Amino acid sequence: MTTSGDGGFTPSRNLRHLQPSATIAVTQEASRRRAAGENIIDLSAGEPDFATPRPIAERGIRAIQDGKTHYPPNNGILDLRAAVARHLSVLSGGRPVNADNIVVSTGAKQALFNTCFVLFGPNDAVLIPSPAWVSYPQMVHLARGEPVLVPGDPEFGLKVSVKDLEAATDANTRGVLLCSPNNPTGAVYTHGELRAIVEWTAKRDLWLIADEIYRLIHFAPGPAPSVLDLPDELLGRVVVIYGVSKTYAMTGWRIGFALAPPEVAKSIAALQSHVTSGASHPAQFAAAAAFGDERVERDVHRMVERFGRRREMVVSYFREHLPGMEFVEPLGAFYFFFRADSCFHGDVQDAVAFCQRLIVDEGVALVPGEAFGDARWVRLSFAASEGDIGEALVRIARFINGLLQVKEAAAAGAARG
Ligand code: PMP
Ligand code: GLU
Question: 204 by DSSP, 3-state: which?
Fold first, then answer.
């Protein structure tokens, strides 16, 4: 046994496509620089900067004190599954939601991975509207399926239509992985758009995984439209992913959910029983306290209001100070996705180089679009304080205007010959 050298390690074929999470990597780089004394503003992480609401945290503490520190039920405690079922039912106008069809996992990330792993296998193609959150293609690869990125329409908030999905479909297509409100764009599919997509997946016998983790972070009245607003007969092949990490500022508690047809839920639970067992027991009690408590609802309302104000800050700053830059106007989640290639020049020829220069020159951490499938775009997370966002915007504008000036000067020089 040696703890040095690689011991001749060749990764198994399971890892053929594996790349570490690029979003997490940027966040770690920002933390490293900050620890080294650099003045870094980190707008990379998709993580609320608020504390977990008190009633939730207190319930978690009480669960520990009450000795809820042993193995939990594999598919989740009934208190939590029933609370989520009620919550999702209320959000969608009282539709029935069966707690038995919900599996609690270690974050929405594990819920998504479990779902991909039970639904897809070798040669199965899975359509992923792009840009897409960094982990979706990886999860499909880990299930040995083939992710097929379907580019969204820039005229349509980078969303996809049934026509786009249809054009990418072939005999191997087994499913679609849709995220709304979207990470990284903040775009939100309307009721009509969701219905058209679900009618199409149902007609084609495809699975639809609907990642609705940002459903309550919506900058229009009410929760964002959901596939759960649609009639039951359309949902026979739909799995809804939901979670507490974002809305309830609970990223570190690691609780997420899959709501799936009964046989799929059973398979997800069976898979999980061999991989992690049930999610953290005290965290499940804490998460149950997130639902149906007015104090928590008030906190969520306040947090969403703050996200809305920050969104306004970013959008209006870009409009005023960077008028040529294209962006998606976010209607949900806490991301702002802008197109940066108009200022690419010299060493900066893609978003990775853009973000590397930005962190070195101006100390602002953003995530390059490569992480989401498009090297022309950059993601800014506005889940940060107004002070940090305001200062970061000034630095970003200075950086972009600097790049543009150099580019224009070079072009003028070339024109003069
Ligand atoms: N889905 C999307 C779209 C996300 O942005 C995230 C955030 N990491 C997740 C799922 C995973 O959430 P969790 O932290 O609950 O695992
Ligand atoms: N989902 C968040 C993000 O996109 C957290 C990081 C991650 O899990 O990838 O930044």
Answer: coil
